[in-house]
Specification:
Bound molecules: 1-deoxynojirimycin
CATH topology of the largest domain: TIM Barrel
Strand order of the largest sheet: 11-10-9-5-2-1-15-14
Family: Belongs to the glycosyl hydrolase 13 family.
Strand content: 15-25%
Number of domains: 5
GO molecular function: alpha-amylase activity
Domain Glycosyl hydrolase family 13 catalytic: 13-406
Largest sheet: 8 strands, parallel
Shape: globular
InterPro entries: GH, GH13_cat_dom, Glyco_hydro_b, O16G_dom_2, SusG-like_C
Protein name: (Trans)glycosidase
Structural class: alpha/beta
Helix content: 25-40%
């Protein structure tokens, strides 16, 4: 495998609205991010994925872009963006921009033109269809944010297609002009020295709406190959596609270097395991570790030699990891460290979502409005109208709303958690006095310092980056254990995913091995006896001493 700089990188995702507010208007901004670069350098990450900062009416918090080549005034200016790229580079940190090109905002000049008349030169930048004879929408396709995927436009008497809110019309990727415009814009950003792109719902751009195909459409991979050739292919950047529909085999198509598409994709199979198969995220189902191990093991195996995995527990669309997979109460610290260890020793590129490194948790607001999220609100209305009870819907929101991850970052115990001098755009999680960066930096035993260690180990041990993955104790319902091996380097990682003591009999090939304790969340461990007693959420990694193996 040809080595790449991003193979041992760790990426940190910033949701700019909620990260750090320098000017006191209550909304996070670029100056705020620049002010926290030293903190990120201390953590040790070397890439930032910046959720969208482009000019936008903020119907979907910036995932609705009205100008790809300018910055939203609430976030700052283009000059500040250039300063952020330069200041990050001085600290050896590269910036990934969020490429949101499945759709634009309805305030993008292309759409403003397109809706003027049927023969407008921009008309074909979007997807328009005539009503059915009774005036209704062309078909039954649904938007991800609730309601029909078609919106009637009275001026021209046709419907336009939108897979997200009606203020996010889908671009028509069958139009070569759309392709060229996007390529031009990408090169404009690449010329500014960015480190690559995270590509929003990129598996939707090859859609064929007339056949009801949205993800994995026939034109998807050719479009990505053309994009690669016209833009980043000749540059040494990281590209990661958001692909809810990817299977491991499909992920290989995206990330096999010879196919010249992307560096890697985000897959969500491990995430949707806790969703109801029919009803989706609003009807959560319990986490089953055996299922989870099966999914992770499959992805590790299929992408072992060809392609590359991305590794993550959460992002701005998902609940907080410690609330979902750990224990946000009594064992918050232990379980957050355990989750970090379990993920960071896998093969792939780890992503940390802001606040994960201090163990931020989900939040229980009384009202759905407080979650400030187009998706939660849209689906709440739709489902309540369909007869779901308020209580049932709120339980779904507490478990899985995107708003959980979007409460402002906790910097310290002062008013507004040190996030802003003004009134924050979204309510702060009340637990900020206990859970905050200042406290974490001061405490050598904090979750933050645990992440720091994991990031450093990835840089020091090639076996973490390139080693083979071997699952251990496969059938165990509470323990996720695996081994990584590269030449004579071997690391064994053991994680108790439960709040109970676990008594383990180790299989013959693991018994009585010893080595160096790399990381742990109780005391250090450097021997594997015959019998192990694991504390609640205990987790550790040992670099085996090759003499004993
Ligand atoms: C995925 C993004 O991560 C999400 O936040 C957004 O709402 C949709 N794509 C639409 O852009």
């Amino acid at each position: 495998m040809e080595t790449k700089w991003w193979h041992n990188a760790v990426v940190y995702q910033i949701y700019p609205r909620s990260f750090a507010d320098a000017n006191g208007d209550g909304t996070g901004d670029l100056a705020g991010i620049i002010g926290k670069l030293d903190y990120l350098q201390t953590l040790g990450i070397n890439v930032i994925w910046l959720s969208p900062v482009f000019r936008s009416p903020m119907d979907d918090n910036g995932y609705d872009i009205s100008d790809y080549c300018d910055i939203a005034p609430e976030f700052g200016t283009l000059a500040e963006m250039e300063m952020l790229i330069a200041e990050a580079a001085r600290r050896d940190i590269r910036i990934l921009m969020d490429l949101v090109v499945n759709h634009t905002s309805d305030e993008h000049p292309w759409f403003i033109e397109a809706r003027k008349s049927r023969d407008n030169p921009y008309r074909d930048y979007y997807i328009w269809r005539a009503p059915r004879t009774d005036g209704s929408a062309p078909d039954e396709q649904r938007s991800n944010f609730g309601g029909s995927a078609w919106e009637f436009d009275a001026t021209t008497g046709e419907y336009y297609f939108h897979l997200f809110s009606k203020r996010q019309p889908d671009l028509n990727w069958a139009n070569p002009q759309v392709q060229q415009e996007v390529h031009r814009m990408m090169n404009w950003w690449l010329d500014k020295g960015i480190g690559g792109f995270r590509m929003d719902v990129i598996d939707l751009i090859g859609k064929d709406v007339d056949r009801g195909i949205t993800s994995n459409g026939p034109r998807l991979h050719p479009l990505l190959q053309e994009m690669n050739a016209a833009t980043f292919g000749a540059r040494d950047v990281l590209t990661v596609g958001e692909t809810w529909s990817a299977t491991p085999e499909i992920a290989k198509l995206y990330s096999e270097p010879a196919r010249r598409e992307l560096s890697m994709v985000f897959q969500f199979e491990h995430i949707t395991l806790t969703w109801d198969p029919q009803d989706g995220k609003w009807t959560p189902r319990a986490f089953d570790l055996r299922e989870f191990k099966g999914v992770i093991g499959k992805w590790q195996k299929v992408l072992a030699d060809i392609g590359w995995n991305s590794l993550f527990w959460n992002n701005h669309d998902l609940p907080r990891a410690v609330s979902k997979y750990g224990d946000p109460g009594r064992y918050r610290i232990e379980s957050a460290k355990m989750l970090a260890t379990a993920l960071h020793f896998l093969k792939g590129t780890p992503y940390i979502y802001q606040g994960e490194e201090i163990g931020m948790t989900n939040v229980r607001f009384e009202s759905v409005e407080d979650y400030q999220d187009a998706e939660s609100l849209g689906l709440y209305r739709e489902r309540i109208a369909a007869g779901v009870s308020h209580e049932a819907m709120m339980e779904g929101i507490y478990a899985n709303s995107r708003g959980n991850a979007r409460t402002p970052m906790h910097w310290d115990a002062s008013e507004h958690a040190g996030f802003s001098h003004g009134k924050p755009w979204m309510k702060i999680n009340p637990n900020y006095r206990e859970i905050n960066v200042a406290a974490a930096l001061d405490d050598p035993g904090s979750i933050f310092h645990h992440y720091r260690t994991l990031i450093r180990l990835r840089k020091e041990y090639p076996v973490i980056v390139y080693g083979d993955y071997r699952p251990l104790l496969d059938a165990h319902p509470q323990v996720f254990a695996y081994e990584r091996q590269l030449g004579d380097q071997r690391i064994v990682v053991i994680n108790n995913f439960s709040g109970q003591l676990v008594e383990l009999e180790l299989p013959a090939d693991l018994r009585d091995l010893a080595g160096e304790s790399l990381v742990s969340n109780y005391g250090p461990r450097n021997v594997l006896g015959q019998h192990l007693t694991l504390q609640p959420y205990e987790s550790f990694a040992i670099a085996l001493d090759t003499q004993t193996t």
